[in-house]
Structure prediction request, 498 residues.
Amino acid sequence: MVLLRQTRDSLRDLAPVVLVVAFFQLVVIRQPLPEGLELLDLLGGLVMVVAGLTLFILGLRLGLFPAGEHLAREFARKGSVAWLLLFAFALGFGTTVAEPALIAVAGKAASVVADAGLIATSEPSQASFAFQLRMVVALSVGSAVTLGVLRILEGWPLHLMIIAGYALVMGLTLLAPAEIVGIAYDSGGVTTSTITVPLVTALGIGLATSIQGRNPMLDGFGLIAFASVMPIIFVLLFGILRGGLA
Amino acid sequence: MNEMLIVLRSTLLDILPIVVIIFGFQYLVIRRPLQRLKQVLAGFVLVLLGLTLFLVGLETALFPMGSLMAEQLTSRQFLPAVVTEAQRHWLDYYWVYLFAFAIGASTTIAEPALIAVSLKAGEISGGTIDPLMLRIAVALGMAFGITLGALRIVLGLPLHWLVMGAYLLVILQTLRSPRSIIPLAYDSGGVTTSTITVPIIAALGLGLADAIPGRDPVLDGFGMIALACLFPIITVMGYAQLAEWWERRQPR
Prediction:
């Protein structure tokens, strides 16, 4: 029953994409599909997308959400701030460092920066730049989740912190080498993967619900916001420092 | 089948650190058994299988289709003919803008991370936030950001001025919005760019930067993601402001 309802929801969620693609293909482009793209494959792919989305959302409700909220409650009950902050850091760092999207972006970034003459074009120097960049981004997400959790504990207003973050980004943008700016802005978007987002959201809401005097709507959200601004700041700083060394 | 195994492996590597951290802290620090362990484990397996199927399906159907269409819409044969040597007007690319808007909005509606966040928001707001309305607001912001990104590549505007303008708008709106929406709005910027949308936008940006003389695919291709992260914040706050205004206007 749950499975059926979820499948129906997934179909509804994917209908707009299918309509947009069909409209542009049939009305605007009006060209036959090229070699190697079979209509049957496309339909099979769509069936997999619908089934995958359905199972994913079911799995979130059964596993990821309860596990995140349960841990948050236990931490709040135990009252150990140090462990909680360590957990927040481990979660942010651990989920980012191995993220395939980040590995891809870091590799591309190294070649852009090498082409611009900021680092040597040799293989090892590019590899080491890519590795450093990955570590910087993973550290930034770790500290972002830690800071976000600290904010929930202390009840600091989110908007002031984020606006301060934006101001910092603007200031650093003017100082950083031009080649780094695009990479930095991009790195904010690649860090929040499909598995991390639900877990981090459940953690924030779980904490805000278990701590006295916190409102889940006001205090529970915001962790993702930190995780998207902090990497920009860290990568810009990294660019300024590395640019100075070169 | 082989491809399925590769994706399964990389998804597993994605989930593994999370599983290790959660269970590590649960059993070593908190030292109490997890409630409903079997259900949670089943959930993780479903997440793993679901995400794998989803990604393989995207790679066989949506990504090739999306990049093909991005390529076709920006190709020289498709655009209206111009006299040789003449400059193309920026309006000639109208199908590109429409496609950017439509594909941005429709893929965001199907974004799993956004579905997750909107489910939670609906749950804890006690019904004042409709998950589907929230997703539509985010999708419109995303669509707007991507369209602006496409326009930026065509016109060659500098990225950081657009980003700073958007920041300014976010700050101004923050001062005027209902307080309870602000954290959710800020979060909605980060959730939109995870699985479906990024590869298609990247293809569009790359195709566009390639088709227009004087644009560098590497330097101009990425600005879309930055803008796509900012505009959902603006539309979600806008949605809350509209809802509040509507509420006030209703006669009691």
